[in-house]
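User: Hey, my collaborator sent me this sequence without any context and asked if I could get a structure. I don't really work with proteins. Can you help?
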Amino acid sequence: MANIILIIVTSAALLLFFNWLMGHKKGNIIIDLEERHFNRNEYVAAIHSKLEGEGREVSYESNSLFLIDGKKYLFIERNVNVGGVPVQRTILQPVK
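Assistant: No problem. I've predicted the 3D structure and written it out in structure-token form, which is a compact way to encode the shape of the chain:
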């Protein structure tokens, strides 16, 4: 019985950690671009274009900071395997 409870608690903790690592948090903006960007300037331009296409007011400040609809966001890049295919995930996290 104790083993089952330990397995359930461990599984729940791992799921929460994975969700946190992938950027699923209230207030975050998550973008998965179809094309991989290795050049930082091209990557920032792609994020800028994607957000403007969604009707947002966007500017890149510097040092991984975006100004989106009047709020500052920190730009975090993650590489994620989705179905065995690596995807470049962009997490824009609000700065307080």
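In plain terms: The mean pLDDT is 84. You can pass these tokens on to your collaborator as they are.
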